[in-house]
Each structure stands twice: as C-alpha cells, then as structure tokens.
Amino acid sequence: MSHTGEILSNEVLKDKYCRAVFRAPEICEKAEPGHFVHVMIPSMRDRILRRPFSICHAGGSQLTIVYKVVGRGTEELSRLKPGEKCDFMGPLGVPFSLPVEDEIPVIVAGGYGAAATYMISERSKNKGYLLLGARTEKDLILTDNYKNNGFEVRVATEDGAVGTKGLVTVLVKELLEENKGKNLKFYGCGPHGMLLALGELLITNEIDGELSMDQMMCCGIGACFACVVKVKDNNPDGWRYARTCKEGPVFKASDVYYGRT
Amino acid sequence: MADLRVDLGKFSLKNPVMTASGTFGYGFEYAEFFPLDRLGAVVVKGITVRPVHGNPTPRVAEVSSGMLNAIGLQGPGVDKFLHDDHYMPFLKKSGATVIVNIWGKSVDEYREVAEKLEAEKDGITALEINISCPNVKEGGISFGTNAAKASELVAQVRAATSIPLITKLSPTVSNIGEFAKAVVDAGSDVISLINTIPSMAIDIETRRPKIANVTGGLSGPAIKPVAVRMVYEAAKAVKVPVIGMGGICNADDAVEFIIAGASAIAVGTAIFTNPMAPIEVIDGINSYLDRKKIASVKELCGTVDIRK
Lengths: 261, 308
Hints:
Oligomer: heterodimer
Number of helices of chain B: 10
Structural class of chain B: alpha/beta
Number of helices of chain A: 7
Shape of chain B: globular
Helix content of chain A: 10-25%
Order of helices and strands of chain B: EEEEEEHHEHEHHEHEEEEEHEHEHH
Largest sheet of chain A: 7 strands, antiparallel
CATH topology of the largest domain in chain A: Rossmann fold
C-alpha cells in the first residue's frame, strides 16, 4: 500500500551521508527493524523507478532514513526541502527478529549498513555491540547514537585512520574469542561481499545470524525478480535465487548460499 | 459509463486493460493493492517446463525514461505453477481472467508446456506464446526474428492445445506486418506487441555493463512511440485482434494504442512505479470515452485518421 510522507527535515549528517525525517504515521505504526520503504522521489521526470531505503528510526509519526548520496536518485532526494512530499510503499520486507532471553545483540555493519540495523539498538532490551567497518573515518556514521542506546561501538577502517585497520570481520573474530560460551545474536548489514564473509565466518563458528541483503531493486514487492540473491535449496543445484524485497531483505546466515558458482 | 468490454475473437474481456507478462508476477504479489478481477486479464510471468534460475545480478538498470532488464525468465516451472497455492490455485480463487505466458528453449519445450496447461486448463483464458524475450540464450527471441521458425513453433503449440493463442512479437524485425501474418496463418488467434527492445547501458567509471547479462530489454515510456508505430502496422496487416503494449503509463497512452489499432492493451513497467496504474488506466479510458461521447471502447479501435 502506498502513503504520502511529508519531509520534516533533510540534512547532511556527515560528508555524503544525509538524514531525512518524514511525517508518515501509517508506516511508523508497522515499522520493525530491518524493514524498508520504497520511495518515489519527485522532481525526476525522466527516472521511472522508486528507490528503496531501510528504515533507520520510526517513532510516533516520524520516519527517519539515512542515506548516502551516490547517484541521481539520492542527489535529488538530498535537495528536497521540508514541506515537500514523497510517495512511500511500505514498510516492506522481512524484518530482523529482536534478541530474546539472554541473547546479546552483535550488530556487524559496513558503512551506512549501520542505518538499517539501528532500530535493533533502540528496541532490543539487551544491550550489545556495534562492530562497524568502513573505508575511512568519513564513512563511520551513527556511532554516537548507538553509544547513547547503550551499545559498545568498535570500529575498523580500511585505511586504519580510526579503530582497527582492516575489515570488520577482524572485529568479529576478536569478539567471538572474548565471548566464548555467551549467547550472541548476530545481525549484519553492508556490502554483499562483507555479508558473505560474515555469514561464512559465523557458520564456521557454528553460530547463525540474520543478514540484510540487497540488490538493485525494481518493484519492491516480489513481482519482478530483479533483486535476487542465492539461497540454499534442495534442488539438484543446491541453490535458488530469492527475492530480497519479498523473501528478504533479512535472511538467516544459514540459508544463504556461499558457493562461488 | 461506457461499455469497456472487448472481443478478442475466441474470448472476450470485461475491459481492455491487461498486465504485461513479467511485470505483475503471478498476480498474488499485487492482490493487496486491488481485486485482480477488476483487470481485463492478468498475464502471468513466463511459464516453462522446468524451474528456471534466471540470470545473475544486477538484472535491471534505470535509463532515461525507461529501464533495462535481463531477469532471464526465473520461474517455478509449469507443475508448480499449476498446483502451488500462490500461483494458479490463488488466481482461480481471485476470480481473475488468467492468460498464461509460455516460453521454452526449443519447440518441444513450448509444446510440452502447452500440453500440460491443456490438461488442466480450467481457469485459463488464453496462452501467450513468448517468442520475443531478448534475455535468454536459447528460445525466446531466436524464434521471434525468424518468421519460418516462429510459424513452425506456433503451429506446434496450436496442435497441442485448444486454448486460445496469443503470440507476443518482438520489435526487432524489419517488417512487423509480414511477421504478424505468418504467426496468424500458423494458428495464432491474437497477436500482442511489443516485447522489450534489446539494449545496453554502460557504467563509464568502471566501463562495466550496467546489467550482468551485458544486454537487456528496454521498457518504459522511452519505447512507447516505437510500440505505437508497430501496433499500427501490425493491426493493418492482420484481421485478428491486436494487444498493444510498450511504455503505457496512463489512460492517455492506452487510448493512443487503441486508436492505433489495439483491441486491448497491457500496462507493464509503470506498475513498478505505481501499482495502481492498471486500475487508473481502466478508469481513465472510461472517462475519455464519456468525454468523447463514445459508447463502447470497441468503436475507438483503429480509428486513427491519417488523411493528408
């Protein structure tokens, strides 16, 4: 179903990262961590497709998305002023499940993947960790917000400017080493390669997790089969393509197919 | 309220608006937006003998006023389509008029799908033979660009089923009229056109094609004038009804196709942007007919005035 969302604020968060807040009560009411909205950005008459954005925060009637300006759609979005309106479909997709009992949430994010997992830190009764990987210091976002929600934040940058030098999986290995025997619940969102590496690392350690995956998306509701990723299947090939918009974006790490074929 | 019913020879529809194959899933996905029985017909995504994985990603890319896709006909296969809850059983319950798009890698595979659908044809109004998918290595468009091969294929499917046949034509032929005649002579009851136009888009930073299949099919408003021209030419060439599609976003677009010669039309890519587009097109055609004081949509078909 589609709804209209009026922009309340739309500001630069840091470098190329922006935060837009919309008045969208119907979507907020149903939004869970990991859901996304499919947004029609006005002012792009020659661009026909909607753009999917993970919901970063949904409280009362206010819906927040955090996005990086990477192309035509996000450039146009960044120019929208308070009072302007967008058409939304959503909330869409399969959400994350919150930690239960003594599960300690461990969020593993790459770049603005930290936006898609943020609601976990808001809504989980147990506090845990954010392990954030990024190319440079400029790509580390929302770290203070996670800290304010009681999460311990550890970062890794590829250039080593902040935190551990290297990939976020290094942080995951360290954390696993420190927390042997504890009931960790892993969540992941970030580039596809990072998620595959994380998923395989978890499986090797006999732990499952929930990974939010995406691909270039089109319809947003499972009709067009554009946004697929490989998941395990009991057919002779051992895998099939699953639609991230409908069957995901959140998949169990144990369901993802890691073969390189 | 104008009369929106259309007659497509062996079958008729309550209104001229269908969904283009591949843009509406199997109906199920859009049923929460509107009742499927409001449509003239639901045309489902291409059905094959066996399940098909489809192409690697990225499968789509946006271009000016359109998009490229190379999904590669991912689908459940005919057995699952006929029996799994989310497919044909759901469509039957919904009361929708169902047209099943079929595809194969060889004549035998097309015939086999048609035979299986013939055996359980309750609830199926017509088959649409896809001889024009540009995104698969075998079958599809290789039949769609060779009139002799296309005729042979249509004749074989015709022999396998009594269900009314629509043949979906490719825009990549030099004489669409001749091609349309060939498939009608071979037993096609209706023709539909156009499928997507083979196209390419490149990321100039990486010099990589924007979709993994390298080339894909162009759809959306960008192709509409091409489609209108081809519907016009095909409708002049054959006596059977023509279903027009290609970039239809609103009722004005739909009316233009009908004036060009289409008896019915399909909304496709526009559904991705606006899931309600097919319903808005139905209502808009009705408003146009009322405004022009035309009693029936049938009267509008092929009325383009080309006097000099």
